Amino acid sequence: MAETIRINTEEYNEEFSRKLKVGDSVLITGKIYSARDAAHKVMTEALARGEKLPIDWTNKFVYYLGPTPAKPGDPIGSAGPTTSGRMDAYTPTMLDQGIKGMIGKGSRKPAVVESMKKNGCTYFAAVGGAAALIAKSIKKYEVLAYGELGPEALAELTVEDFPCIVVGDTEGNNFYEEGQKPYRKI
């Protein structure tokens, strides 16, 4: 079994992203940003109007997340991934803003895969169904913009050893397909 790759978001860039391959197990530490389909829609509409976004997405991670309310003393409630395909209509535009890591679950459309290859962005899967466990790696959660969207707002998360698997690399490989190959019978 391959060794787990540690990623510090402050040092993450396109060069690092292009070295990752499907099946790599990673632990992410640093700042990541959550946004779901409603926030993506607002951001792509703002870009179409020529407006500046609330954050500079260069070399950043986006986590497709809709958290539950936090219990007293916790920074966040359950924090499992949202199905990434919900963002596919907006993803190429957002990747053009400099995003180098996406975290979610599920397969992506061909246009997204092509944009990942073009922009040097890696797609990571967080484990669905383990939302309470994932929340333990989130140390801070702060809404930055679009608070009216509730759990779909743009937020900054500080994470420590956030577990993911590379499911889409910058060469267009898909772990959802590659990982099944050894088990298929023809």
From TrEMBL:
<keyword id="KW-0456">Lyase</keyword>
<dbReference type="InterPro" id="IPR036660">
    <property type="entry name" value="Fe-S_hydroAse_TtdB_cat_sf"/>
</dbReference>
<protein>
    <submittedName>
        <fullName>Fumarate hydratase</fullName>
    </submittedName>
</protein>
<feature type="domain" description="Fe-S hydro-lyase tartrate dehydratase beta-type catalytic">
    <location>
        <begin position="4"/>
        <end position="178"/>
    </location>
</feature>
<dbReference type="Pfam" id="PF05683">
    <property type="entry name" value="Fumerase_C"/>
</dbReference>
<comment type="similarity">
    <text>Belongs to the class-I fumarase family.</text>
</comment>
<dbReference type="InterPro" id="IPR004647">
    <property type="entry name" value="Fe-S_hydro-lyase_TtdB-typ_cat"/>
</dbReference>
